[in-house]
């Protein structure tokens, strides 16, 4: 028998016929079969210790073992939306290393397995690795003339492209996948592509298009009783209804999604919806419910090790503290969340929190401190290439100058914000900038310009099916 040789990462050893995990019990019989006892623990997905005995007679058996392991730690379908637990993170890391070792040994991995590996890599933040698995799956499916698998790979490749800000590439991939599924008559698969297109439209602020697509996909998913797809569509529609300030309808959609997520034991998804419901409760004037829902969400996020989500929930708690007048606690929680975002290298989350801190100080007439936080946010948004975020930061900086009577400087910043908002179809942002420009016109006693700007601010909202509320509504615009 060949002396066992450790792999570079110390996780596997060569027995002379197979690579097996270190510490695995092995038994040789005639024919060089290797029996391995795999023990997979996942308290979130399985609820208990699970053992699986696999006979590794061939590369095919090894690939099957990998698929079974992926499924046991939660990666079942081609498209996943929830984040993994700490235990999944650990198991995924080992499985990805094992798959790379298999490929280096010349072992062929099926396209469907590569899709699952890509999902595992993507949901643990390894986007470059995820793209490699998806592209390998795409190549495999094309070599087999498997159009359905090819479409699945394109959908996943599109999601990675969307995450990296490559909008045009994501659109092309989603569009091609939808055409393939439609040609094959795979209606449920086509709905997966439609959901992807809906998320793309939502990210691009194409609200009406996104709503139409989510609704279309929801109808299909309900016909096929595809709960995973139903939940994605319900949450997407809830997001849109919340943006339209139809809070009661948004709450209903989120609650329906929550029922599904709890039935699926998708804790991360449950935590996200609880956060959404907390925001809705605030809008509906139920602060105690909002705080309770946020604390429930934080408890889940801590249990599954979702530090990013926990930081977001601290922002929610800070806002709730501010709303009830506890400014000391609000400041502490905002700064705690900002520290967590920086530690996580979450630039977008850091920028959002900086904006909230700016607003916090602005509301206390601490305009210099507010401007400092808004300017830091603007720098990050420019680095990320987030035009809408850049426009919001400029609008906020303009406000600090308007309140200090620096009208010329504020006007320039509102004009910049307005141009960006129009470019990215941020209709509310454009309307807000026009209102502030009207305030400056009033200071200059230019009443005709003031009236023109306010009428246009209301018109842009109405023409895009957004409600005219607050100051505009109260003053008859």
User: If classified by CATH, what would the architecture of the domain at 357-477 be?
Assistant: Alpha Horseshoe
The share of residues in extended strands comes to: 5-15%
Radius of gyration: 26 Å
Instruction: Give a quick account of the main beta sheet: strands, pairing sense, barrel closure.
Output: 3 strands, antiparallel
Helix fraction bin: over 70%
- How far from one another are the termini? 87 Å
Under CATH, the homologous superfamily of the domain at 357-477 reads Tetratricopeptide repeat domain
* Count of DSSP strands: 5
So what's the CATH class of the domain at 357-477? Answer: Mainly Alpha
Lateral strand order in the biggest sheet: 1-2-3
Mean pLDDT: 79
The string of secondary-structure elements, in order, is EEEEEHHHHHHHHHHHHHHHHHHHHH
Helical segment count: 21
Shape: globular
Under CATH, the topology of the domain at 357-477 can be stated as Serine Threonine Protein Phosphatase 5, Tetratricopeptide repeat
Low-confidence stretches: 23-57, 76-84
In a few lines, what is going on in this structure?
The protein is built from 21 helices and five strands.
Task: Describe the protein in words.
- The chain contains 21 helices and 5 strands.
- It is mainly alpha-helical and about 475 residues long.
- It has a domain at about 355-475: Tetratricopeptide repeat domain (Serine Threonine Protein Phosphatase 5, Tetratricopeptide repeat).
- The chain has a 3-stranded antiparallel β-sheet with strand order 1-2-3, with no helix packed on it. The protein has a two-stranded antiparallel ribbon with strand order 4-5.
- The longest helix has 19 residues, at about 85-105.
- The model is unreliable at about 25-55 and about 75-85 (pLDDT under 50).
